[in-house]
Specification:
This protein folds into 2 domains: 172 residues, Rossmann fold, CATH 3.40.50.1970; 168 residues, Dehydroquinate synthase-like - alpha domain (Dehydroquinate synthase-like, alpha domain, Up-down Bundle). 47% of the residues lie in helices and 19% in strands. A 7-stranded mixed beta sheet has the order 1-2-9-6-5-3-4, sandwiched between helices. The chain has a two-stranded antiparallel sheet with strand order 7-8. A two-stranded antiparallel ribbon has the order 10-11. Helix 2 links the parallel strand 3 and strand 4. Helix 6 packs parallel to helix 11. The longest helix has 21 residues. The termini are far apart. It binds nicotinamide-adenine-dinucleotide, ligand LNCXM5UN and zinc ion. It catalyses: 7-phospho-2-dehydro-3-deoxy-D-arabino-heptonate = 3-dehydroquinate + phosphate. Catalyzes the conversion of 3-deoxy-D-arabino-heptulosonate 7-phosphate (DAHP) to dehydroquinate (DHQ).
């Protein structure tokens, strides 16, 4: 078992990574002053696999947790779905000290966290991520949100969980495509922060894809350490935290333009990273070889480098809804070298449009 701490003063919390975390979960909950009524939010794929098992653990810890099951998929990250969950929380009798527990991938985590942040102006929140993407990224750092028709994650908050419990055994039921999507965010950490980690990914790619225990737990723990390190320095994205958005300006536009159906988030991030690497190359910041090596690494992890069914004009229009856009200027996270990025709002329109054209199939 490994523990990574997210150091945020009185909002600090632990990420517990391991197998069979029943004891850790029970001990943690019994050490809190939670009310008995709780809401365990999960989705239609995860409920039959782990819903009752986790409900029983919560019960053993003294909670009366109602299992609330949302439809699996990005479409559920909506205000309509949030409204239904508020109703279930009220009907089950939750109060201000009642915990909300997210058992699922990033969709469940972002949505449940949004409910926890807003229900009764904020109730305790616990993350139990079940997808690789959620374990390496979305369950850590406190970004919670739902989507708006005009863009991704536009309605949300920064709301930290009280604890994150990652059961590595849950990875066994994860479809292969979801492993790849998680690896999209993992690759991101190498490029933005840690060249050694990037090299580890290259050397150990087969063990990672086969979910070999040592390799996958290192990948998850190192990803959490990097994210915790960044978030601890800049919880609310005043500056540094924007590096975690590497590739996301284009990714979110691609997801929206394809109605969140064609590309998973991590796949869109892969394409978006190629896009910003191309922009960085066109600006003379990096050699073309870094871009082609990135394409090769992503392909090794079964990730796409080009997006279908999008137009340059639509993607270009969407990027202005990005949360890093200020006064009509997009703040781009650009690559300086492997392991180092910088932020720049000074990228000519022509270069952006050329790069977008090159990542569209
Ligand atoms: N808050 C953040 O910091 C942050 C970071 C990255 C991504 N995100 C968000 O996360 C979402 C993507 O997360 P995701 O990739 O986990 O998607 P997801 O939640 O849709 O999960 C992917 C699929 O895998 C299934 N699944 C999850 N765990 C499983 C398991 N153990 N066994 C079998 N099936 C399982 C789900 O039911 C779903 O069908 C996006 O909305 C993205 O914007 C948020
Ligand atoms: O935690 C962060 O900060 C991130 O940017 C992590 C991203 O992987 C994640 O997709 C995030 O939700 C995107 O943030 P947003 O502010 O662009 O919605
Ligand atoms: Zn992301």
């Amino acid at each position: 078992m490994r523990t990574v701490n997210v150091n945020l003063g009185d909002k600090s919390y632990d990420i517990i990574i391991g197998h069979d975390l029943k004891k850790q979960i029970v001990d943690f909950i019994q050490g809190q002053k939670f009310s008995r009524k709780a809401l365990l939010i999960t989705d239609t794929n995860i409920a039959p696999l782990y819903g009752e098992k986790v409900q029983a653990i919560l019960n053993e810890a003294g909670l009366d947790a109602k299992l609330a099951v949302i439809l699996a998929g990005e479409q559920s990250k909506s205000l309509a779905c949030a409204e239904d969950l508020y109703t279930q929380a009220i009907q089950h009798g939750l109060d201000r000290k009642s915990p909300i527990i997210a058992l699922g991938g990033g969709v469940v985590g972002d949505l449940a966290g949004f409910i926890a942040a807003t229900f009764m102006r904020g109730v305790p929140f616990i993350q139990m991520p079940t997808s690789l993407l959620a374990q390496v990224d979305s369950s850590v750092g406190g970004k919670v949100a739902v989507n708006h028709a005009l863009g991704k994650n536009l309605i949300g908050a920064f709301y930290q969980p009280k604890a994150v419990f990652m059961d590595l055994d849950m990875m066994k039921s994860l479809p292969k495509r979801e492993i790849a999507t998680g690896l999209g965010e993992v690759v991101k950490y190498g490029y933005i922060y840690d060249k050694e980690f990037y090299e580890y990914l290259l050397v150990h790619k087969d063990e990672i894809l086969d979910l070999k225990s040592e390799a996958i737990s290192h990948v998850i723990a190192r990803s959490c350490e990097i994210k915790a390190d960044v978030v601890s320095q800049d919880e609310k994205e005043a500056g540094l935290r924007a590096i975690l958005n590497f590739g996301h300006t284009l990714a979110h536009a691609i997801e929206k333009e394809t109605q969140y159906k064609k590309y998973n988030h991590g796949e869109a991030v892969a394409i978006g990273m190629v896009g910003v690497a191309k922009i960085s190359n066109k600006l003379g910041m990096i050699d073309e070889k870094i871009v082609t090596d990135m394409e090769k690494l992503l392909a090794m992890f079964n990730l796409p480098e080009k997006a279908q069914d999008c137009s340059v004009e639509n993607i270009y229009a969407d990027i202005f809804h990005d949360k890093k856009t200020v006064n009509g200027k997009v703040n781009w996270v650009l690559l300086e070298e492997i392991g180092k990025v910088c932020i720049s709002s000074n990228v000519p329109e022509q270069i952006v449009k050329e790069a977008i054209a090159e990542i569209l199939a």
